[in-house]
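Hypothesis: this fold can be encoded by more than one sequence.
Test: take the structure tokens below, design a sequence, compare later.
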């Protein structure tokens, strides 16, 4: 049965009569799961006003108390973890064990940022002026406009909401059109666990209508956006004009280098996970696998066998589910077909649903592609699906050059037993995250994540670095009298 989701403004559902509604269909079998408003400018303005109204009171709550409220919310998330994981799994089509892992990650984020309420450290400074002492304090920016995609919906929401709240901002979250019920459940649980009033508002709608209106609203002091590089560029233009704070977490075309001295089984394991887990819908997906000539043929054979052995579906234990929707499936299959026309070799996959999945599902079989030229579109542009290109190189210098040859720079990995090679590569590759002998995996709550080049605008979330996104630093100085009075 389909569920009608409504905007959550001032801790209450606010239906928007007359506003057109967007449908969310199951990526697994096409069933209608939910509908949501394509919120208008007026709807967005109402949500922002609610956040503005709540700001004075929320920012006056001490950081330690804000942390205690987030701890309470984390406890509620723990109690409801299974329900939330089921919603995430149904909306995204990911197998339940992956959804559970994601919910666990969101709870860890809550715990981490709740703890920051007891720190929110700033600095004391010396001065050249006798009698003058200085220190910095962190202050909230105001209303935080948070815009997220649905690939890891609860993690994406947690990633932004908790640091924004602990810094004393109020929030208007623009949920993804592909995972509205995840956001709805999150907001209602926050409210039930004491984060009340207009502190956390959630609006639903398309990027073109609702997202654009949120970014344009001058009362929104900081916008944090996770999504595609193209949309990030548009948002940056608007925020640049109105000089608002902006954090962009964008796309990637992440290289994994396999050296000739690598542990082959381990490299194959991590290459498959990097490329295909979450159906390749990870900004950190290892979508370019760069392998040294001496082991290339053996590695290719083993990776193709691994890719062919992966199970698709939504059942527990499946390796990967469908991609987000049929449009995304069509885009990915078209890109593979174009690569084929351009002379690429499709080593495995390249097709839509495996025969035992519903015809209306947005499945893409795990696909490995050998390219005649590294410049081919499929090796340069993020596809956000279970597709990776394989590249043969002679040595590490060539591998590095190739790794650095796209406009992105989010994550990278290298497999080698040689610490000197690993270190040489790690310091030269253009990426915000570099991993040795694991996958092109993302971050943990206390680790900064973000990218070089077209993968972002230089900010890092989460980790304590996220506090810099969501707070203003103020330097306060005193001049005290040196004589006793
Ligand atoms: P998308 O850019 O199409 O949409 C992301 C969000 O932005 C959605 O909520 C959408 O409604 C909204 N949006 C779209 N147009 C907008 C506009 N003009 N103004 C304001 N909001 C707008 O991305 P997607 O396809 O949903 O997600 C996939 C992308 O997200 C990939 O490029 C992936 O790499 C990236 N991503 C990055 C990270 C990271 O941390 N770097 C993490 C996850 C996903």
């Amino acid at each position: 049965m389909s569920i009608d989701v409504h905007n959550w403004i001032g801790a209450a559902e606010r239906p928007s009569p007359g506003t057109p509604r967007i449908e969310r269909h199951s990526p697994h079998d096409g069933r209608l799961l939910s509908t949501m408003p394509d919120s208008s400018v007026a709807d967005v303005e109402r949500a922002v006003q609610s956040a503005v109204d709540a700001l004075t009171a929320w920012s006056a709550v001490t950081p330690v108390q804000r942390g205690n409220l987030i701890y309470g919310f984390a406890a509620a998330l723990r109690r409801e973890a299974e329900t939330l994981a089921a919603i995430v799994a149904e909306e995204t089509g990911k197998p339940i064990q992956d959804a559970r892992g994601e919910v666990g990650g969101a709870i860890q984020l809550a715990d981490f940022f709740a703890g920051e309420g007891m720190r929110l450290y700033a600095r004391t400074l010396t001065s050249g002026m006798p009698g003058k002492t200085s220190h910095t304090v962190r202050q909230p920016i105001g209303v935080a406009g948070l815009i997220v995609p649905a690939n890891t919906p609860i993690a994406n929401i947690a990633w932004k909401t908790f640091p924004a709240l602990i810094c004393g901002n109020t929030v208007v979250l623009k949920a993804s059109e592909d995972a509205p019920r995840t956001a709805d459940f999150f907001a209602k649980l926050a409210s039930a666990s004491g984060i009340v009033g207009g502190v956390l508002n959630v609006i639903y709608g398309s990027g073109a209508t609702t997202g654009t209106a949120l970014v344009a609203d001058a009362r929104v002091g900081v916008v944090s956006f996770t999504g595609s590089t193209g949309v990030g560029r548009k948002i940056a233009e608007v925020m640049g004009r109105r000089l608002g704070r902006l954090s962009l977490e964008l796309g990637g075309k992440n290289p994994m280098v396999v050296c000739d001295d690598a542990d082959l089984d381990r490299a194959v394991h991590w290459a498959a996970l990097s490329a295909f887990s979450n159906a390749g819908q990870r900004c950190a997906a290892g979508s370019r696998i760069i392998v040294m000539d001496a082991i290339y043929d053996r590695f290719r054979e083993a990776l193709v066998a691994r890719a062919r052995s992966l199970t698709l579906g939504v059942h527990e234990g499946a390796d990967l589910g469908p991609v987000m929707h049929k449009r995304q499936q069509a885009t990915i299959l078209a890109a593979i077909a174009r690569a084929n026309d351009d002379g690429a070799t499709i080593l495995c996959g390249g097709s839509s649903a495996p025969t035992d999945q519903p015809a209306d599902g947005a499945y893409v079989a795990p696909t490995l592609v050998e390219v005649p030229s590294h410049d081919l579109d499929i090796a340069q542009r993020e596809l956000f699906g279970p597709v990776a290109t394989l590249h043969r190189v002679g040595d590490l210098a060539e591998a590095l050059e190739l790794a650095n040859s796209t406009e992105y720079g989010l994550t990278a990995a290298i497999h080698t037993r040689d610490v000197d090679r690993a270190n040489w590569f790690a310091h030269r590759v253009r990426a915000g995250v570099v991993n040795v002998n694991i996958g092109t995996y993302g971050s943990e709550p206390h680790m900064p994540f973000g990218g070089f080049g077209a993968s972002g605008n230089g900010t890092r979330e989460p980790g304590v670095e996220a506090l810099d996104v969501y707070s203003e630093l103020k330097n306060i100085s005193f001049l005290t009298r040196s004589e006793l009075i």
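The first helix runs from residue 41 to 60. The mean pLDDT is 96.
Hypothesis status: open.
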